[in-house]
Amino acid sequence: MTAKKPIWYIYGSGGLGLETMDILTKNIRSKTVEDHECMFIVDNVTDRHINGFQVVDFQEAVVGSKITIAVGEPKTRNVLREKIENKNLVLSSIISDTAFVSDSATIARGAIIAPFASIQAQAIIGENVAVNTQAIIGHHVELLDGSVISSQVNLGGACHVGEQSYVGMGALIREKVLIGSQSIVGMGSVVYRDIPDGVIALGNPARVAKKNEDKKVF
Question: What's the pTM?
């Protein structure tokens, strides 16, 4: 009898979920990771199949299975992580085999590292962090838990991004700059100075526009 494959859930079936499933299944085909039964998992299922993959309700999750959160909203990522821990699922990282990851970098559980991203020497990627396509994470950069880095962002060496913060597409962050927790840096912004906690910063040079009261990006 053929042994049953272990399950790997992608939590979320929106755009980031589809992209993350593509990374996972490509890694399986290339044998970068062990073969798994890949499924989407959501709250309140409306469609049982997406892109040929089964969709299951969170309440149906098989305890002990791997799961990766593929939702782009930092606050939501944090809420879902707590649900996963209560359900005894295994928060797991998915790293594209086309990404560059330095041997001296550290990547915690639950991270997504998308195609052609670059994670340089001594970088620290925290738990449940998402780094999107072609983002550059410079040497000694630290991304704290739940932060989201959009495509083509460039974080200069020794930058620091706080918990549950979001850096929008194409933003450029000068080396050694600190971006606080639960803050948003707008797409295309150029950041020369530190950004405090809980704000939205935009422009070139980036300036604080307002407080991030809703804690929402989208």
Answer: 0.95
Bridge partner list, 21: none
Q: How many Cβ atoms are within 10 Å of 26's Cβ, its own excluded?
A: 15
pLDDT tens digit string along 55-113?
999 999 999 999 999 999 999 999 999 999 999 999 999 999 999 999 999 999 999 99
What's the rounded mean pLDDT across residues 6-35? 97
Q: Work out whether the CA dihedral 165, 45, 89, 22 comes out positive or negative.
A: negative
Residue written as token pair 């050694």: 176
Q: Where are the alpha helices (DSSP H) in the chain?
A: 15-29, 74-87
Expressed in angstroms, the distance from the first to the final Cα of the chain is: 47
Contact 123, 139 (CB under 8 A): yes
Q: Locate tokens 């200069």: which residue?
A: 156
Q: Set out the domains of the chain in order of their start, with CATH numbers.
A: 7-92 (3.40.50.20), 95-206 (2.160.10.10)
Token pair recorded at residue 138:
């410079």
The CA distance from 32 to 92, in Å, is 14
Decide the pairing of beta strands 199-202 and 207-211.
Answer: antiparallel
Phi (first) and psi of residue 15, to 5 degrees: -60, -50
Q: Is 74 helix (H, G, I), strand (E, B) or coil?
A: helix
3-state secondary structure of 185: strand
